[in-house]
Design goal:
Number of helices: 10
Distance between the termini: 33 Å
CATH topology of the largest domain: Nuclear Transport Factor 2, Chain: A
CATH architecture of the largest domain: Roll
Number of domains: 2
Strand content: 15-25%
Order of helices and strands: HHHHHHHHHEEEEEH
Length: 266
């Protein structure tokens, strides 16, 4: 994890906007320097085309000086890799230094052995672990069926896997509505499929569970004018589970760096 952070810090310091500012002339940064860095990054992110539309509302387009100071001074806890807010911060930093998101940074530097969760090990009951993994698989199957069933949208089946009105539930509903409004249907003349692999438990406590996955999605759409639209992505994702009032675990949120590509780029 810290090897990954070190690489990000190096690339950030080598960024032209940073090097050409007063930060480039200082070896040791103080609070005022992090204020300057925050201003530089935020101004750049506000103009970045990646952070438009839903993506902007999903992760935001600003980073505070305090957050940057903690990151650079290694005031990051070992549980940071399971904190959705911190992952979104990494997303924004990586967008600033020229990547599409944090996942893109990892993929393009994978030969250096970079990862977000190098030393996370948890002793989790195998039977429980399998039930959580099946929850993730069931949710993915449900999402695929939802997409396949367009233009009809029935979120009822999703409620078996996702907490109603949670961030993830609302996100699924929103992108389904967008696909419906765009009048996109799966093209039956071309195969569409998905695959979830490398499913791994990252952490568990009384209030939350974090599960990471690698996912491949290949969806072929056709609009009402007969034009085809292709969505193809492979990335790393994190699922955040919470316990419901009746004691069952369900998905509360999901970190998917490409979720809005499904409606904004195809």
């Amino acid at each position: 994890m810290y090897k990954t952070f070190a690489k990000i810090k190096t690339e950030l310091k080598e960024n032209e906007l940073v090097k050409n500012s007063l930060l480039g002339y200082s070896d040791v940064w103080k609070t005022s320097h992090y204020n300057t860095l925050s201003n530089i990054i935020n101004e750049s992110l506000m103009k970045n085309p990646i952070l438009k539309g839903e993506k902007k509302f999903q992760i935001g387009n600003t980073i505070s000086a305090i957050t940057l100071k903690r990151f650079f001074e290694d005031q990051i806890s070992d549980s940071a890799s399971t904190d959705l807010r911190f992952i979104k911060t990494l997303d924004k930093i990586c967008i600033f230094i020229g990547y599409e998101n944090f996942n893109d940074f990892i993929q393009k530097n994978k030969n250096e052995g970079l990862t977000l969760s190098e030393d996370i090990k948890e002793d989790i009951n195998t039977e429980d672990q399998n039930s959580y993994i099946e929850l993730i698989r069931g949710c993915a199957e449900c999402e695929f069926k939802l997409i396949s069933g367009l233009p009809k949208i029935n979120m009822h089946e999703t409620e078996k896997f996702v907490i109603i009105d949670s961030p993830y539930y609302n996100r699924i509903s929103n992108y389904m509505r967008k696909l419906e409004n765009q009048k996109y249907l799966l093209n039956l003349n071309r195969n569409s499929n998905y695959e979830i692999f490398n499913i791994e438990m990252k952490s568990q406590d009384e209030q939350s569970i974090v599960i990471s996955t690698s996912e491949f999605w290949n969806l072929n759409f056709i609009d009402e004018e007969g034009n085809t639209h292709h969505y193809h992505t492979m990335n790393a994702q994190n699922y955040f589970l919470r316990k419901t009032e009746n004691g069952n675990w369900k998905i509360w949120d999901n970190y998917n760096p490409n979720v809005w590509d499904l409606t904004d780029k195809i």
